Amino acid sequence: MKIAVLGTGMVGRALADRFSTLGHDVVIGTRHVEETLARTEPDWLGNVPFAQWQQTHPAVRLVSFADAGPHGEVVVNATQGASSLAALEAVGSANLAGKVLLDAALPLDMSQGMPPLLSVVNTDSLGEQIQRAFPEARVVKSLNTMLADVMVDPGSIPGHHNVFLAGEDTGAKETVTVLLREFGWPQEAILDLGGIRAARATEMYSPLLFAVSAALETYDFNVAIARK
Amino acid sequence: MKIAVLGTGMVGRALADRFSTLGHDVVIGTRHVEETLARTEPDWLGNVPFAQWQQTHPAVRLVSFADAGPHGEVVVNATQGASSLAALEAVGSANLAGKVLLDAALPLDMSQGMPPLLSVVNTDSLGEQIQRAFPEARVVKSLNTMLADVMVDPGSIPGHHNVFLAGEDTGAKETVTVLLREFGWPQEAILDLGGIRAARATEMYSPLLFAVSAALETYDFNVAIARK
């Protein structure tokens, strides 16, 4: 499948790498290709410069957001939440129309330091904003409740744990489910929460994600729903 | 131990019943004792009128908020979040000074119907509001991430699942931990998230609680943190 991953950070790299390893035809989209390749310092999270990452992932091509749009049969939003709408605008609404748009981003507001606040919350969500801004895209909010390593390798956390789906389009959720299964998510771990409004629920879980990670001093965990 | 449970709803009844069964000396506080006893209809959640519940729980005495304060060595806030500060004001700050105040409430805003919104969120929380309003109370936010039946009978959900603590006072969290252990919570299930700010994290989990319950059509579940 032709997949366009938007965002060159930790999440975008992890998803692009995994999709590519699974045999998909993957591009990573960025705002300015030359600027992204010119960086020589690790980012604030300690990730190596993209050009260095690119050397070990030659199958993943770096392209502009505008060029990512036509490539992707599925478009994955792995940009920072604060710049997601601008990134998708650069991809172009015509390039998103009718396509599955997997939104894995969190609307984190780091302006007050850690733990982050949310820039949209309670009465709205980033997932809903994206669906409203691109009404012809088939938005599925998913994967935004865990760190990148867990997204693409759920088996790294033993036992039962969950990944959530929210979106209006049943077929789009089926496509995302197929991709999640390829990542290794068992069918029973994939919990469909209904329409895109449920993006609020999974985005608003993120303060608990950060609080638990601070308490456990690790991000090697995931949320699970334990049932009777 | 002398325990004052504030709130005559589902959570207050479940906690009072369980504490009483465990041998504690329990009162339930309400705004107007006569009004509470005069009700003859089930509440909007289908709970039987309090007077009827009282007949099967004679050891639990119904008192005014003002009378609940002096009784409680531990005070439990099981009121609706929208009226929690008023209820605690009626208990009186002098009656809360130095005491463990277990806050199990959620600041739900039902004005838009289901699922509820939160009336305080993101940059503040009900737990923090209570601690600020009653600085001499030793506030511990806990139990607010599950339905009442699970709070008092964690063994009803098989396997590993969690209950969280947030609060500034280590001794108060130890007291709450003792009570949770009496309810049947294993030590390893009790996850201390640090100071009272983490009340935001557990209160903001509630949209996911409601979304999961809508998807599964049950409240018989709890959140678990699955670890490596």
Structural overview:
- Two copies of one chain form a homodimer.
- Chain A has 228 residues and is an alpha/beta fold.
- Chain A has one domain (2-216): Rossmann fold (3-Layer(aba) Sandwich).
- Helices cover 39% and strands 21% of the residues of chain A.
- Chain A contains eleven helices and eleven strands.
- Chain A has an eight-stranded mixed β-sheet, sandwiched between helices. A two-stranded antiparallel sheet of chain A has the order 6-7.
- In chain A, helix 4 (65-71) crosses helix 5 (81-91) and helix 5 (81-91) runs parallel beside helix 7 (126-133).
- Chain A binds chain B through residues 115, 117-118, 121-123, 156-161, 164, 166, 191-194, 198, 200-202, 204-205, 207-208, 210-212, 214-216, 218, 220-228, and chain B through 115, 117-118, 121-123, 156-161, 164, 166, 191-194, 198, 200-202, 204-205, 207-208, 210-212, 214-216, 218, 220-228.
- Strand 11 of chain A pairs antiparallel with strand 11 of chain B, so a sheet runs across the interface.
Provide the descriptors you would attach to this structure in a database record.
21% strand, 228 residues, globular, homodimer, alpha/beta
Strand tally of chain A, please?
A: 11
Helix share bin of chain A: 25-40%
Q: Low-confidence spans of chain A: pLDDT under 50, at least 5 residues?
A: none
Radius of gyration of chain A: 16 Å
| Beta-strand proportion of chain A | 15-25%
Following the backbone from N to C, one meets helices and strands of chain A in this order, namely EHEHHEHEHHEEEHEHEHEHHE
**Which chains share the greatest interface?**
A-B, 42 and 42 residues
Report the sheet with the most strands of chain A, covering strand number, pairing sense and barrel closure. 8 strands, mixed
Number of helices of chain A: 11
Total domain count of chain A: 1
Distance between the first and last residues' Cα of chain A:
38 Å
Main sheet of chain A: which strands, in order across?
Answer: 3-2-1-4-5-8-9-10
Oligomeric assembly: homodimer
Structural category of chain A:
alpha/beta
